[in-house]
Amino acid sequence: MLIVMKHNAAPEQIEVVVRTIREMGYDARPIPGGQRTAVGLIGNDGRVDSARIEGLEGVLEVIPVTQPYKQVSREWREDDTIVRLPNGTTVGGSEVAVMAGPCAVEGESQILDIAHQLREMGATVLRGGAFKPRTSPYSFQGLGLEGLELLARAREATGLAVVTEALDADTATAVAEYADIVQIGARNMQNYPLLRRAGQLGKPVLLKRGMSATIDELLLAAEYVLAEGNDDVILCERGVRGFDTHTRNILDLTAIPVVQALSHLPIIADPSHGTGVRSKVTPMARAAVAAGADGIIVEVHQDPPRAASDGAQSLYPAQFAELMAQIRTIARSIGRELSAPLSEVGIR
Ligand code: PEP
Ligand code: MN
Question: pTM of the entire structure?
Answer without folding.
Answer: 0.94
